[in-house]
Amino acid sequence: MKGEDKFLIKRNKFYKFLSLASFAGTIAVSSVYYKENTPNAYEIKVFDKAVAYVKADENALKQIAKINNELENRFKSTNFKDSIFVFNSKVNEDYLIDDKLLEKSIIQNGGIEVEAFSMLCDGKEIAIIASQMEGKEALDKVANYYASKNGVNIKESNVKNKITYEKKKTLLKDVDDVDKVKERIIEVNSKLKKPLLVIEFKGTSQSTKNISPETIIKSSNSILEGQSQIENQGKYGEKIVLKEITMQNNNIIDSKVISEKVTIPPVNKVILKGTKSNEDKDKTASTSFVSPSRGTISSNFGMRWGRMHEGLDIAANLGEPIYAALDGTVTYSGWASGYGNLIKLKHNDGIETYYGHCSKLLVSEGQKVKKGEKIAEVGSTGNSTGPHLHFEIRINGVPKDPTKYLNDIKNK
User: Fold this and answer.
1) For residue 148, how many other CB atoms are within 10 A of its CB?
2) What is the Cα gyration radius of the chain?
3) In whole angstroms, what is the distance from residue 103 CA to residue 64 CA?
4) What domains are there in the chain, each with its CATH number?
5) What is the dihedral of CA 397, 401, 406, 409, to 10 degrees?
6) How does strand 269-276 pair with strand 215-224?
7) Taking the model in full, what pTM does it have?
8) Potential cystine with 274: which of 71, 118, 227, 365 (Cβ 3.0-4.6 Å)?
């Protein structure tokens, strides 16, 4: 390369005394050639060794300045100002590298010697680092890695091993960065039964926990003694739990609750326990029912088609009368899923009767009716395959077999 072709830049001096604009102007003046000889690249040399070619533009110069500053900040005892040089050059574009790869090329290929530190764990070298500060930063990152995996916010940490540092002259390419040191320690720890390095740290962990509902038992004189009924299933609540956690690497060695804050209160489960005497039971059993229809039983109470059939089906002609089985009060008269047109009657002693699939409803809610009074007409509404009455007897909400209470019902 001709002497007038190259523009030697000692980087520190250049960026201290020249602006990028003045440098670009200098290049322009010193590069007036025929088109085929016009420089298109910067040749980057470390000492006398070419390590890279980059596109000749302002971005490349900025990148070189940035690399220089970063290296001098990391290796304060090493002088880089007489190491890296920039020359004008004409090369095939295939030889150009991206500005972002320039630092790696300088480090790996430049052969620059630096004064670094050997990082020792219990006397054994585990890394070569630029400074003791970077060693401490790597250890902090290891602790933060383990803490993050377990949802812990670190308050304090200490290394259980003896960590020391010794000055060491080495090639720049052999110096580890902080992340590489962190990853190496974590990887080695995961493979050894006894970890290479142990970091103990304390911190806090916050989590949301369910609160189980309490079960409350209440007495009810409307339910027979020995029986029970769920009044409220209850509902889980939520609370925020703050814990103080002590860990060694990835292992929790101590945990204690600092505080708990209820965010959603639980709803208690309520069970009604029957206190109704056996005399009342006998009274219910001896209550005289009348048949709600003149028809014939077509399907009995009990399991049917793999599910519970909670009443009797009494086959009858469309429009035939349906009668109240006992004196009572109408609690429902209208459409209900599955039942079609439905009437519910409430009687004494916790007894209810249901009349389903009606074609016509003749009573309304709140109305009082007498035993044997016509309240509806037979139909086939809802889930029904033909005219019939679906009749249920419920005592304290529990379905009972109507045939045990009806003496005048006709069987098949």
Assistant:
1) 11
2) 45
3) 8
4) 40-111 (no CATH), 116-204 (no CATH), 206-276 (2.20.230.10), 296-404 (2.70.70.10)
5) 130
6) parallel
7) 0.52
8) 227
Residuewise pLDDT in 10s, the chain (412 residues): 433 333 333 333 333 323 333 334 434 433 333 345 566 888 888 877 888 888 888 888 888 888 888 888 888 766 666 677 788 888 888 888 887 788 888 888 877 888 999 999 999 999 999 999 999 999 999 999 999 999 999 999 999 999 999 999 999 899 999 999 999 999 999 999 999 999 999 999 999 999 999 999 998 887 888 888 899 999 999 999 999 999 999 999 999 999 999 999 999 999 998 887 655 455 555 578 999 998 899 888 988 777 889 999 999 999 999 999 999 999 999 999 999 999 999 999 899 999 999 999 999 999 999 999 999 999 999 999 899 999 999 999 999 989 888 876 666 5
> Quick one: which of 34, 19, 109 has its CA closest to 5?
34
> CA-CA distance, 310 to 303, in Å (whole number)?
8
- For residue 49, the SS3 value is strand
Position 412: which residue type? K
Q: Position of tokens 């709600």? A: 292
Structure tokens at 407: 């003496």
Confirm if 236 and 210 have CB atoms less than 8 A apart. yes
Query: Residue 111 and residue 270: Cα distance in Å, rounded?
Result: 80
Look up residue 255 and give its amino acid: S
